[in-house]
Request: fold
Amino acid sequence: MPNVLVFAEVNDGVLHDVSLQCLSAARQVAGAGGRVSCLLAGHGVAGLAPALVAAGADSVAVADDERLAAYVTAPFAKAVGACLDANPADLLLLAASTVGNDLGPAVAAARKAACAVDCDGVAAQGGTISLRRAGYDRKVMTTFVPAAAGLVVGTLRDGAAPAPAADAARQGAIAPLALDLTPAELVSKVLRRDVAKKTVNLKDAKIIVAAGAGVGSPDGLALVRELAQALGAEIGATRAVVDAGWLPADHQIGQTGATVRPDVYLACGISGAVQHRVGMMDARTIVAINSDANAPIFKIAHYKIVGDLKVVVPKLAKLLKA
Amino acid sequence: MAINIVVVVREVWDTRDLSGSVLDGAGAVRAGAMETRFEPEDLNALEAALRIKDAQGAQVTAIAVGETRSVDVLRECLYRGADKVVRVGADPAGLDDQALAALIAGAIAKAGPCDLVLVGTAVPDAENSLLGRHLAAALGVPAVSWVDAVEEVGPGRAVAKRAVEMGYEFVEVPFPALLSMGVALLEDDPRAPRPAKAMLKLKMKKAEVPVVSPADAGAADPAALVAMKVATMEAIAPRVIESQQVDPESEAALKGMLDAVLKGE
Ligand SMILES: Cc1cc2nc3c(=O)[nH]c(=O)nc-3n(C[C@H](O)[C@H](O)[C@H](O)COP(=O)(O)OP(=O)(O)OC[C@H]3O[C@@H](n4cnc5c(N)ncnc54)[C@H](O)[C@@H]3O)c2cc1C
Ligand SMILES: Nc1ncnc2c1ncn2[C@@H]1O[C@H](COP(=O)(O)O)[C@@H](O)[C@H]1O
Reply:
């Protein structure tokens, strides 16, 4: 049974929910005979270790160090390496986040390990670990296996494994991890961060009205906002809208934003790029409004409205208020 | 002093408007079913390099692995303003990013001193390529990934704007360094890296593209470096969605849809 190391990512003092999903995937892969250990690295993070034990870790190595206050590849990769040296693992799992997708490959490159990112699942059969990923516009499921024995590194997408049930009675060893960093490992510096605080809760929203670049301007967005209000819905956005500065980043849905599964998803002026679709395609009912009848979003929409959102959206809002 | 920049560019499948099955009966990618294109983020990496060249002078070298299928990405680089190109004479089929990185690192070392290496982050079948990370390890240089813009360059350092969940980070790295460029977001005009220039096309149409062999690049048998291989590829059945068209002109149709949706039908 393989031993698995999970990198527990912490953002603003909160454990990344996909890291917790990695723990449940790790437990499943490790089975009864394998060990699941966790690396908790950062500054002021030690208090989170018991939550990792409750979520399924047999042991937690804690690297609580002020030099780890901001994520920079080299010192974090060193911490993962130290952890692997002390407790050899067959599989390293991380969240497919901007941290995990940077750190996982860095560790793999340093150790010449097999690596796949953005995976939709992981399995161990007959001693072989495999990772699978939907690619080619989610038209092909590719299964990867290591070319030779040794460490396998994988990052998992949101939803690739279920969230683990927390069991406060679980026992696990929590121990500090000493970090010996060389000047060469500290050359990269985060000068400043410009990161939004979470103000919307898209994950729990029952209805989401999402705006795409098709809204065209803050005025167009105002129409969408009005419809959301009439529906009692949260407002989501594509990356194009966030990059235009029309909505803050916490509204973004998709690969680099939130993954949502609402009852109703109303896509307004969204083309339906795969990076957006992966974040919303499991919504129960999808309504799409787009002036382009060939927009890919229509391929996954239950209700297709081909038209100008500047006309259709106010109509819908009016009908709801009537 | 003008810095030396290497841009790694790739020709990849264009999966955007894919019709029909991607795979043939044997589970291999049907090359005929797909067009190729200049990997869009590599085009951003090139654009970032050319902007540095425009602003403060730089020698820009583009490197690609393998023969051209239908888009000659190296010549496209010359048409946009790259100074030099190098082709690594190896077939990338069957090679993973670890093996490709070894070849490219060898070619970079042969090309002379280098301050900055720029690569694109994504390829269409794997939204995050590992190439940047492996290349940084092979070159032994620090790297920053998901870079949306190069904020400052020199002397002796760069400041990269890195996309993170919920915002951006500004990361300083000393030269030599590698930056993996992200989605698009070249601030002023996100979707339009510069087009080819007619004048450069005329001038560069016949330019010679030097080829470095794997042996010259220091990896005589790149296949031996492969760490991760594809076991199987299976077509994912398209989701069958019962969908209906709603006439935006008809108030009754819109009302009916709203009622159905809100009742959870
Ligand atoms: C690594 C990576 C990660 C990414 N992560 C994400 C992510 O997390 N989330 C995300 O959303 N994107 C992400 N993207 C970007 C993604 O590829 C697309 O660029 C983005 O989703 C497009 O947003 P959009 O649909 O709003 O804009 P566009 O693609 O520009 O589409 C606008 C649509 O609006 C329609 N339209 C225009 N005017 C009107 C009108 N008046 N009425 C009705 N319709 C109209 C158009 O027909 C068009 O279909 C990522 C990309 C990469 C490479
Ligand atoms: N869209 C793409 N994404 C990733 N790799 C690609 C893409 N298109 C082509 N390649 C590479 O090109 C190689 C040759 O493709 P083929 O000969 O069709 O199997 C593949 O093994 C891939 O490594």
Residues A 212-214, 238-241, 252-257, 269-271, 273, 275-276, 279, 289-292, 295, 308-310; B 122, 127, 183 surround flavin-adenine dinucleotide (ligand 1) (CB under 6 Å).
